Amino acid sequence: MHLTGAMFHSRKYPTKDHYPFHLPLFRATKRLVFDTPVTLFVGENGTGKSTLIEALAQACQIHIWRDTQRTRPDYNPYEDQLHRYMSVIWANEPVPGSFLGSKNFQYFAEKLDEWASADRDQLNYFGGRSLTTQSHGQSLMSFFYSRYRIPGLYLLDEPETALSPQSQILLLDILQRMSAAGHAQFIIATHSPLLLACPQATIYNFDRSPLTKIVYEKTKHYRIYKDFLLNRSNYLKPKAKHQRKDTKCLPKKKSLTKQSA
To answer: Does domain 3-68+78-109+152-233 match CATH 3.30.70?
Structure first.
C-alpha cells in the first residue's frame, strides 16, 4: 500500500451547517485505514463518497482535471474544502497518481488532444489513439489499460457510469492484476455490484456513521440486485411493497409530460 490512512480533524471544521461538514459521518469518523490494494466506497447518493474521493485527491496533491470556468447559481464555498481539514498517511513517501471521475474525463480527453496536436507521441501513453475518437466506454478502457501499469495511487469516482457490464468485468480484472502486481493502489466510489465484488477489497459503508467496513453480501447494492433478479415480478407490480415512501412526493405522469414539453 502507498496510502495507509487518512485523518479527519473535525474540531477544526469551519462550519456545522453546510455540506460536507454537516454530514454526521464526517463529524463522527476520525480515521480511515487503507490496508488492502483496493478500497471501495458504497452508499446512497449524497452521502459524501465523491466528496471524499476528491478530498483525498487534493490532500495527496493529485490533480483533478475539470473546467474551472463553470459557475453555478447556488455556490457553496465549503463544498471542496474538506481536504484542508484532513491529513493523509503514507507508507513511505508520496507517490504520483490520478483522479478519474465520470464528469471530468471528457475534459481530460479534450486536453490530451490539445497536447497531441503539438506532440502526437503523447497519445502513446493512452493506446496510441485520441480518446475523443472512441466511445466514452472505449476511451475509459484505453485509459485504464495504459495508465494503471504505472506505479501509483488511483482514485476513481463511479467509473461504471459509462461502462457496459462486460467492460466492468474487464475493469475488475485490471484491478485484480494491477493490485496483485503490488505497484498500484485503488480507492473507488461505486454503485456497481460487479466492482464491489472485487476479491479481498475493503468496502466502506457510507450509509452508517461513523464510516465502517462492510462485507460484500451485506451491502444494499448486492441485496437489492440479487432480490430483483430472483424476484423480478415483485418489483414490477404497479403497487409493489418495495416502493420507497418518498416516491409519493414525485409529480404525476401528466405533470412530467407537461414539463418535458
So the answer is: no
Given this model, what pLDDT does residue 150 score?
Answer: 82
Residue 39 · residue 155 · CB < 8 Å: no
3-state secondary structure 29-46: CCEEECCCCEEEEECCCC
Measured distance CA(210)–CA(29) in Å, rounded: 5
Contacts of 196 (CB under 8 A, 6+ apart): 40, 42, 190, 203, 216, 219, 221, 222
User: Can you read off the three cell numbers belonging to residue 22?
Assistant: 454537516
Alpha carbons 189 and 21: distance in angstroms, whole number: 19
Contacts of 2 (CB under 8 A, 6+ apart): 90, 91, 92, 95, 97, 152, 153, 185
Report pLDDT digits (tens) over 125-179.
Answer: 566 666 555 555 566 677 777 777 888 999 999 988 878 898 889 889 989 988 8
**Domain locations along the chain:** 3-68+78-109+152-233
Measured CA to CA in angstroms, residue 55 lies from 58, 92, 149, 171 at distances of: 5, 20, 24, 24
Q: Please indicate, yes or no, whether the overall pTM of this predicted structure exceeds 0.85.
A: no
CB 185 within 8 A of CB 3: yes
